[in-house]
Amino acid sequence: MEKFLNLVLDPLRELFVKFKAFVPNLLAMLIILLLGFILARVVRLVLLKFLGAINFDSWSDRMGFTKLMRKGDVWNKPSSVVANLIFWLMVIITLLTGLYALQIPAMNQLVASVIGYIPQLFSAVMILGIGYVFSEFVSRTVLIAAANSGFHYAKLLAKAVNTLLIVLILAMVLEQLHIAPTVVLAAFSIVFGGIVIALAIAFGVGGIPAARRMIEREARSADEESQHDKIDPI
Amino acid sequence: MGTVALRSDVHEQIERIGSADIVVGIPSFNNARTIGHVVRAAQAGLAKYFPEHKAVIVNSDGGSTDGTMDVTRNTSLGDLDAILLHHRITSASKIVFPYSGIPGKGSAFRSIFEIASALGAKACAVVDSDLRSITPEWLELLLKPVLTERFDYVSPLYHRHKFDGTITNSIVYPLTRALYGKRIRQPIGGDFGFSGKVAEFYLSQDVWESDVARFGVDIWMTTTAIANGFKVAQSFLGAKIHDPKDPGADLSNMLYQVVSATFGLMETYADIWAPVKGSEAVPSFGFEYTVGLEPLNVDTSRMLKVFREGVRNLGEIWLDVLGPGDFGEIERLGTLDDAEFHFPASLWMRTIYDYALAYHKRTLPIEHLIKSMTPLYVGKTASFILSARDMGQDEAEAEIENLCIEFENGKDYLAAHWT
Predict the structure, then answer these.
(1) Which of A228, B62, B193, B319 could form a disulfide with B125 if both were Cys (CB 3.0 to 4.6 A apart)?
(2) Model-level pTM?
(3) What value of ipTM does the predicted structure carry?
(4) What are B25's strand-pairing partners?
(5) What is the pLDDT of residue A226?
(6) What's the rounded Cα separation, in Å, for the pair B98 and B7?
(7) Which residues of B touch A232 (CB under 8 A)?
(8) Which chain B residues contact residue A59 at CB under 8 A?
């Protein structure tokens, strides 16, 4: 009978011992979650105040971030979006840290690999953000310079420059995230090379008459301009 | 403010000269072809009109490679009997040196102010080194109001072709006049007279490491003098003829430099200009006479093409800056034929004020914002040329006067939105 009871109670005892050993981990996780969540909320509030003080929303308008958000159907203020992003990033980190505190081997491995991926994710987001600002700036520079010189296709040229830069930036982001790097590299080479070859063929073979017309028009325009006086604007 | 680092040989020259009543500054950069004439005119003007004053000519050079400084050093009046009849001849000393610091006209001026201050000058004049029409009388007209009439700042007044100076006529003059209430016709003329006190004041300003050192020093000097309550006058100098500008100089760059400097000063002096209503004439010196100017044949069809391409390509930016009402008007102008094209003064006034507000609110990077104005400016200029083609000089001037009144009347809009 005693043997039978041992057979029943031993697993329960073992479970209780394990549970006893697990309880501090569970408590640690709950405390981490609570503190992490409070900290995330505090950081969110502070960040909102700080971004408001440095006129982050106006800066985002200027840099074209707001326009990009509206295109993506996001209608919150840019400062609120950034604060929420940081908040959720902190919540995710808190959850991962909490899970790590449970000391479950399988979970630890998962948490370690997710945490190991964060620097890559961060640099990918940075590349995307800076790349977007850069591509908008460059394409607007091209647009204004081309329009000011009276170029008919200024908008098209600026759009082409913007698209090429976005393709380049997206390839860099995917490469950074290690998402099928060989496929990305091959696809990028094909797309980018294809565009260059298409342009070369269009202007080198198919566009000979058009190119001739453009050169003649420019030469004629320069000739006509030389027959007119220049005014002194200052 | 710290002083600019003048070379040791310049310090030696200043010590040798000791003091001076008058300093004439000539900033230069590769002006070997014309600077000789400018220096001779300055020497003759000083000898003829200020024989009793000790004077120094300062050539502050930006590192010319065409021998500009050698020309300045070697230039002398030559046969003085032909120039000066009865006056005592006192030759002016010369200080010729390459300035240090940020390359630009502002840095060249800073060195001139520094030397004027070190020499204790009572009156100073600065004249451009590419002038072909400068005469000895310019020196009298720029310096006498300071020395004898106690004015602090003398701005030039020129006779120019009705189609020249379009940035001045359509933006800088109407805007400066409406903002600060003084009718200074050539606020960015480039040739100015000022007192030693004003030179000291300029030196004390914390701007010499900013864009003022590179460009925009002309409007900065004029605006600073008006906004700080100095006694301002203008002198009629005659025709302004100078070497053609660098053909490679980009119009939108010129526009950017002048307009960004003007808008930047609006930020600095917002409290000064906001309450100003209307404008008043400033005392004028010199005998005005008509100058025969060669007719100009300007290609307005090309200018209108640039305007229409602007409407087609820069519409989104203009819509953001001007709002749907005025942008709709601009779009309508883009559909007009050359013969019927007319850019109304009221629309132009609101365009400039909206751009000033966009600059203030930083809705775009500054260079993009102001350069995006180029086709609008070109359109306005073409409109003026078309309407003033058959006008005389006085009628064309009356058009500019109407534009100025429009700017003055519409100023409440600017002040109300400047928050």
Answers:
(1) B193
(2) 0.83
(3) 0.83
(4) B58, B126
(5) 62
(6) 9
(7) 160, 164-165, 245
(8) 362
